[in-house]
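Notebook B, p. 112. Complex prediction, attempt 2.
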Amino acid sequence: MVKVNGFSFVARSAGIRKSGKPDLGLIFSTVPARCAGVFTTNKVQAAPVLVTAPRIAAGECQAVLVNSGNANACTGEVGMQDALRCGQLAAKSLGIDEQLVAVSSTGVIGHPLPMPLLEKTIPGMSEGLSETAVDDVANAMMTTDSFAKVASRQAGDSAPYTILGVAKGAGMIHPNMATMLSFVMTDACVDQHFLQQALRQAVEGSFNIITVDRDTSTNDMVLVLANGESKTPEIVADSAEGQEFAELLRGVLLDLAKMIVRDGEGATKLVHVCVNGAADDGDARKVAYNVATSNLVKTAFFGEDANWGRIIAAVGYSEAQVDPSRIAIFFDGVPVVQKGLGTGPELEAQATDVLKQAEFSVTIDLGLGDGRGEYYTSDLTYEYVKINADYRT
Amino acid sequence: MVKVNGFSFVARSAGIRKSGKPDLGLIFSTVPARCAGVFTTNKVQAAPVLVTAPRIAAGECQAVLVNSGNANACTGEVGMQDALRCGQLAAKSLGIDEQLVAVSSTGVIGHPLPMPLLEKTIPGMSEGLSETAVDDVANAMMTTDSFAKVASRQAGDSAPYTILGVAKGAGMIHPNMATMLSFVMTDACVDQHFLQQALRQAVEGSFNIITVDRDTSTNDMVLVLANGESKTPEIVADSAEGQEFAELLRGVLLDLAKMIVRDGEGATKLVHVCVNGAADDGDARKVAYNVATSNLVKTAFFGEDANWGRIIAAVGYSEAQVDPSRIAIFFDGVPVVQKGLGTGPELEAQATDVLKQAEFSVTIDLGLGDGRGEYYTSDLTYEYVKINADYRT
């Protein structure tokens, strides 16, 4: 069980979810932590986002309260009051300033929070705090997730610290609106400005290669809290330590991001789409995005069909510079297309074996330049349709 | 049975499709027709597109040969030779110049056409031409389509002519790469330049509101042939007759486009997404597109769930100007959101009844300006996944 100095956790079943599953989690740091956040770019923002974003921008945070079962989105002024009230209840229970509490919600949109349940449950939560209960919080954040998502990294012996993250999210097929929440705790001491910069960068190389900025839900939120309780020297930008911290942070977020794809609603496969040889990185990313989000490509993955025709067509309708006669496509190492033409039935049969795996890569070489981009995606399955057709009913 | 003066049709089972279904169609005009075309914008273009586009641009066409079962795409130089050869065979059989033959293909990508079958079948086709066999051609164009798509309009008594169209296409869920073909025959006499302009406009208001430019397959093609055999006066731009022709042409294409959505792979519902009150038409179209292509919205339609939360979130992540507190959403006439807030369980129950219908509209009013846009979409179902996972195997 990974612990992080100064952090403790607790979860409860408040009854927001009718199933009676845990639906309320609390993360607490014994001292105020420096913090950074990345929030949804959706123009429709849920009340907890509106309440929390300015608090994080102020630079210090000591607790995160998260509920599942209700997004507190599209709930108007009542929703704002409810989000503030939840923060107050947590602050009072913990004996801290309410401005140091981040609040976060995920679940159905358009229904007010069941405040009587929260009024009853939040006040007693601080009593249950435990430094080993991070899994409970990860569990309480779940909506259609099929497993709790926790990842961590440790820094080396000379100045040891830990980065521990939890996340929630599963609807990444086309990533519209499937709320993604992630909270990262570290006992490192990190310069505030660098912390925000490192988080932004880490999100770009993790959550943003399973989703894209515009495809955000009303509630998306990634927070990092650095409380300095490792008592190691302050980590600043443009240093070896800063570089190491940034890499470890990205490692935690990428682990969580891959778990989200693997847990994509109904998904049975994790596919790494890599694009090389593009005119530039932007082009590479566009191509990777188009391939990774094509329903026809994703259903072919589910059908374990090495259908490179669908891939090459998705490459072609991207806005990237493309010369069809230079395209090469590989499933893991197996070339199925060279110079824009199929390589024949024998290699296609080998590629079909690759597709039978639970994890594989599709590499597309455009043969034009040095641009690179990547994306993680899953297959599109019967189960996806079932989950999303039945979600509210 | 709608007939168009001077046009005749024939279809055959050449054996390209292993099922033995008809897979080869021929459309013939007794005289060379003025023509116009809209072709895929995909950077990867199939051989028949490369062969046909310049012929149509030359302004005259007398025959269209179409096959299903094989797209002749990503087939390199061999594919080009095969496409040219098919045109030659048809031209010879019909006794016309090969430059007057358009060729078109749909089906799997990356396999050469089975030329021996085509060499054997095409030469005898002209013998079977019949002016009442348009349905046979529509039938021979089908791939995953579940029904043949034919629509027509007649112009008024003073100068009567007919517009008759066929189309193929069914994979419009996210419209990536699902080839869309349409051929329109009219005996009107139409100015060549105006014909191209009217076609472009009609496509914008029909096929392009079920798909978008970038989401084109390697093979997409819409052709119109106007042979003048109605012997009515030439129709030119900026005239009442031109206006009428443009409207009738759009009517035919919109009928065909709706059939394509209704036949969307596995689709059970046809949904008209209307956006009003946007800052401008471009914004309205962006919002309509985002809502119409959201997998989560579409699975909610399948689940007959009036889940306006998913709709409002899709509105929010569009790039359009949005003020959440002004959004209104209606299912047919039933308001489920006013000023960004839900209207309560009673109206939501009424909306759920609307969703039980096979056809309904979702109207989104952004409350900002006069911008309008629309889109037709379908639901996302188990059957979609099944069809696309199994398509090649």
